[in-house]
Amino acid sequence: MRFRLIDTVLQQDDDRIVAVKNVTLAEEYLADHFPSFPVLPGVFMLEALVQAARRLCPTAPPRYVLGGVKALRYGTFVGPGESLRVEVVRQKVDDAGVITFKGDGLVVPSGTDPADADTAVSGRFTMRPMRIAKRAAVSETAAMVPSRSQ
């Protein structure tokens, strides 16, 4: 199952993106998280930041994946009828291609000015090029493990 957590991109340039995730009762994960008080899970708030950041990463292979998270803080909940407005800023790129981002997510109740929004999530994180294991190395390892019939 794949969750697309960016509904709309409001602004984007080379180093910054502002995007929105609208939370509705139709989201299937809300049935389990929490049934009597449905809210967007914190890990999905982080994933919304990551999906926004991925749009600022190079588009040529390799694909970029979450490398690490630092100083992540959660503030308030995001429930059905509200939006998570994320802003992600690229801060630096190192020699290995690891990109450091700063991200903030604000909870915006329906019909409310984003200037009055509360923080739902904020922190720093890195995106790194995805590492692809070579099949030959996997095959060699499998050949070294004795089978159960021996």
Topology:
Layout (H helix, E strand, L loop, with lengths): L7 E5 L3 E7 L19 H13 L9 E11 L7 E12 L5 E11 L8 E12 L5 H10 L6
Antiparallel strand pairs: 1-2, 2-4, 3-6, 4-5, 5-6
What does this structure look like?
Strands 1-2-4-5-6-3 form a 6-stranded antiparallel sheet, covered by helices on one side. The protein has 2 helices and 6 strands. The chain starts with 7 loop residues before the first strand and ends in a 6-residue tail after the last helix. Strand 4 (82-93) and strand 5 form a beta hairpin. The chain has a single domain (8-144), classed as Thiol Ester Dehydrase, Chain A, CATH 3.10.129.10. The protein has 150 residues and is an alpha+beta fold.
Keywords:
single chain, globular, six-stranded antiparallel β-sheet, 150 residues, 2 helices, Thiol Ester Dehydrase, Chain A, 15% helix, alpha+beta
